[in-house]
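User: Design a sequence. Structure:
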């Protein structure tokens, strides 16, 4: 299971690290620091959706590759319960253990997305109110503590980069990510309540969602080779943008 894989990596990691919180079922949400501890810091998140657990392996790849310059925090598995559901009997499960889609639960035009629902299930449920879930609370508090200059969120799939929300955003970072991955920067409409959205709207910092892997692939992607275009994305981005 991916949670055990990330936990084992975390336990052996000799850099700065911490547990930012716990999932609904009590699993640790790990964070590991890479690069310089001084200067501006980024936050990069992975596997906020259960069925996208392969991005946790991408996170470990990013940690192993390290950075050319700059520093920041990598959170490989924001949604450990959802990942366990996906790797078990519900392969397409996207939400957390309470049936809430964590990337619809942030306070950024919450509840206004085209596909939003209050019905608990695999995807699109917004929760009872913004930050109703322990996982989004943990990510919110850690983000506020670090005060990053930028955040990146790695998802699957589609080979696209989302950089804008509610009329705000920084296209420059998206163009750097395009150079690193070959993915096209795009604006996304009819979506709200995501981590990227909250960072842009409430923290007033640039934020990017990178949809890794070809759209022709089926969820859940289980082989990291399909995300190879993103292997150096974080390293290149921080070198050119940071």
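Assistant: Done.
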């Amino acid at each position: 299971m991916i949670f055990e894989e990330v936990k084992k990596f975390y336990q052996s990691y000799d850099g700065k690290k911490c547990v930012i919180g716990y999932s609904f079922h009590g699993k640790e949400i790990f964070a590991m620091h890479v690069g310089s501890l001084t200067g501006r810091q980024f936050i990069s998140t992975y596997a906020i959706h259960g069925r996208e657990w392969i991005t946790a392996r991408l996170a470990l790849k990013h940690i192993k590759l390290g950075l050319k310059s700059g520093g920041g925090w990598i959170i490989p598995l924001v949604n450990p319960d959802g990942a366990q559901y996906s790797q078990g009997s519900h392969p397409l499960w996207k939400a957390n253990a309470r049936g809430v889609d964590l990337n619809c639960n942030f306070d950024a035009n919450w509840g206004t997305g085209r596909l939003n629902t209050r019905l608990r299930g695999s995807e699109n449920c917004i929760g009872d109110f913004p930050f109703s879930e322990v996982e989004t609370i943990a990510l919110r508090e850690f983000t506020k503590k670090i005060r990053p200059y930028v955040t990146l969120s790695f998802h699957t799939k589609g080979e696209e980069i989302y950089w804008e929300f509610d009329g705000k955003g920084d296209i420059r970072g998206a163009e750097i990510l395009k150079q690193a991955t070959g993915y096209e920067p795009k604006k996304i409409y009819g979506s709200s309540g995501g981590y990227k959205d909250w960072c842009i709207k409430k923290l007033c910092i640039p934020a990017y969602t990178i949809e890794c892997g070809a759209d022709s692939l089926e969820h859940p992607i289980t082989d990291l080779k399909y995300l190879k275009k993103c292997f150096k994305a974080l390293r290149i981005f921080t070198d050119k943008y940071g």
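The mean pLDDT is 97. The longest strand covers residues 28-35.
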